[in-house]
Design goal:
Elements lengths: L12 E8 L2 E8 L10 E6 L10 H9 L2 E6 L18 H14 L4 E6 L1 H12 L4 E7 L8 H16 L2 H11 L16 H13 L2 H13 L4 H5 L5 E6 L7 H11 L2 E5 L6 H4 L1 H14 L2
Parallel strand pairs: 3-4, 3-5, 5-6, 6-7, 7-8
Antiparallel strand pairs: 1-2, 2-4
Length: 292
């Protein structure tokens, strides 16, 4: 899971609900006007599996300073956005339609970014209806299901969620996270108690049905790159130099097939948004500035 480098939003960002035709979603909304600059566009930031809007917290200030309204959202059933206790509510098309409704509520013409599982959801949204979007950035997400080793780990998590209470699953996850995976930095400092409490609260608040549906989708997602390549939107594929969820060569190949701008963030793993936010924000702004 992404570990935000800090938890306090910058002064130009506010926690506010985004009201859409498909319900209300919790957001961190960073406005360029609050930073004293003109608005050059709006960005919708969609988090991944076990994630939340806070995963993008370190991007909000630099994006707003560059003139972009940056809206990071909790999807349905994630963290502070309510969600039904029915598995069917978290089918990929349902989540994709939420993203479309969020973009429409922001006025359309939105630069869309999805991180990890959020990249699969954003791809599905664009394939359903590209009209509310100005561009698509896929961050740390590959062309199909996650790597086989990660599929096995995810299936174990799903099995545990089906048999144990979430608190027991959380404790087991913490034990496993003591050993970093490829593309994750080894812990060199004591963990921040405030961050640990936030991660635990986020896990507790996210509905089990959302976790089960998202995890399953990660293990069975087909390759839809050819479909996405046919969508006439500017595309950007960004990742760290290493990635445990999808092999970086598969991300490279996807970007080539999409004719996408390709960015590799040095020194980052699966969460460049949290691990190298300054370099990530710079690459994002550079891409969006090129979009007409």
């Amino acid at each position: 899971m992404s570990r935000p480098p800090f938890l306090t939003p910058p002064p130009q960002a506010q926690a506010r609900p985004l009201l859409t035709r498909r319900g209300e979603f919790a957001t961190h909304d960073a406005l360029p006007a609050a930073a004293g600059v003109a608005t050059r566009g709006t960005v919708l930031l969609v988090p991944g599996f076990t994630g939340s809007k806070e995963d993008f917290i370190a991007l909000l200030e630099p994006l707003a300073a560059a003139g972009y309204r940056a809206v990071a959202v909790d999807g349905r059933g994630q963290h502070e956005s309510a969600g039904p206790r029915e598995a069917s509510a978290y089918a990929q098309d349902e989540l994709a339609r939420d993203v479309i409704a969020q973009a429409e509520a922001l006025g359309g013409g939105v630069h869309l970014l999805g991180h990890s599982f959020g990249g699969l959801v954003c791809r599905a949204a664009v394939l359903l209806d590209a009209s509310p979007f100005r561009s698509l950035t896929i961050m740390s997400c590959g062309p199909a299901a996650i790597a086989e080793e990660q599929q096995a780990r995810t299936r174990l998590l799903l099995a545990a969620l089906g048999q144990l209470d979430k608190e027991a699953v959380w404790r087991e996850m913490q034990n496993q996270e003591q050993e970093p995976q490829d593309g994750e930095a080894a812990a060199t400092e004591p963990r921040d108690p405030a961050l640990e409490e936030f991660l635990h609260r986020r896990w507790t608040l996210t509905t089990t049905e959302q976790l089960l549906a998202a995890g399953r989708q990660l293990t069975v997602e087909p390759d839809r790159t050819a479909e996405l390549a046919a969508v006439p939107l500017p595309k950007h594929v960004l990742s760290g130099r290493l990635d445990y969820a999808w092999p970086v060569p598969s991300i490279d190949a996807m970007a080539k097939e999409l004719s996408a701008v390709r960015t590799v963030v040095e020194g980052a793993g699966h969460s460049p948004n949290a691990e190298r936010p300054a370099a990530t924000a710079e690459a994002l702004v550079r891409f969006w500035d090129l979009v007409v």
